[in-house]
Design brief:
232 residues, 7-stranded antiparallel sheet, 4 helices
Length: 232
Amino acid sequence: MEYEFDHLLQKQVYDDMVMAVDSNEEDWCRMHDFVITNGQILEYTGHGLTILDVGFAQARNPLNTTFHYFEIQIIDPGENCYIAIGLTQKDYPKNRHPGWDEGSIAYHADDGKIFIGSGVGEDFGPRCQKGDILGCGISFANYVNSFSDLMFQDRDNCEWSDESSSDYDMTSDDVISSLKTKSRKRVEVFFTRNGSNLGVRRVEMPESGFYPSVGMLSINEKVRVNLRPLTG
């Protein structure tokens, strides 16, 4: 009996692992008020009554030079199409739309606005509807990493005085390190709709990196997610 029990337990663990792989749940590290079905379908399960009812999903891994872009397709816009696609820092609040808080940037399908760490958005693209494919990525080729250029830029913007050298307590290594840090954090984030580039915003990337994220806020909203599309 003990052998049979162990065998059944191992089979259950194996089946659970297979189901997890089949559902792509391993691609997500955080999921709030969402269920994932058929491998790539994210469905909102929240109440959709107030702005505190945001459903939020964050991918397990941040974008990088290998996987720098992802897409969602609106399967069902629900009641209001309160759907957001964007990037968030690792510890982003689970009940806040991407773009609303610091360390995030997102395109919102209901009004076509872009939100960059603020609850106030700016006009960016068209409103979206059922069937639209929205994409978000980072142009790592345009990564602002030339700290030498930044050094000259900062030098040109400085006002020198006779007292500045004696009061300045940073070493040259500190300056270079600081400039390198500044240069590493500026990235160009772009968004697409149905294969067309909507535009680019240069933002500061959090130290944790930028994680693909999806937000929803009204009943029956549903999207298909592709974290590794061939295009983009």
